Amino acid sequence: MSEEFQGLDEAMRKIQVYGFPVSFEWLWETAASLLAEIEPDENVYGNPIYGFRTYFGISSIGTASAILLPGQIVPAECMDGKFVTVLYIFNDQPHNYRYRPTQEQVDEITEFVGREPQWWLDCMPGSFYDGLTD
Questions:
Q1: Full-model pTM
Q2: How far apart are CA 41 and CA 45, in angstroms?
Q3: Contact yes or no for 22/78 (Cβ under 8 A)
Q4: Nearest to 15 by CA among 77, 92, 90
Q5: 118: Cβ–Cβ under 8 A, 6 or more apart, which residues?
Q6: Which single residue of 6, 61, 87, 101 has CA 20 to 30 Å from 32?
Q7: Which residue in 18, 96, 27, 28 sits closest to 60, CA to CA?
Q8: Longest dimension (CA), the chain
Q9: pLDDT for 42-88, tens place per residue?
Q10: Dist CA 77 CA 97 (whole Å)
Q11: Using the 8-state DSSP alphabet, how is residue 57 labeled?
Q12: Element (H or E) spanning 30, and its range?
């Protein structure tokens, strides 16, 4: 198999996510702030994804370490080593389709984050997630 096709085959085994490049610090600080607003009497230092899911009502929100593809430009603070920290709003997996947000929800979180979402290639192979979802 040619090197070009091997690269394509490897990419096709990875999950694509649609979301925003964010810094790890922003992710945690913002989630804590959202949780403090939603549940002021609770400990706000739990899972950051819970804060985003609860605040925006998007159950498919998650985080990923994504591969920076040629031509993609991101702020340096969004880089974690050679990967990009991504807050995604959905992915390309068939079981995730039913949880996709509405356009109104996408517009709301896009305005909140202040960046346009784009497609990213998760650095983990799809098989990594087998059994982790319903």
A1: 0.81
A2: 12
A3: yes
A4: 92
A5: 18, 19, 20, 72
A6: 101
A7: 96
A8: 58
A9: 665 667 788 899 899 999 999 999 999 888 889 999 998 899 999 99
A10: 30
A11: T
A12: helix 24-38
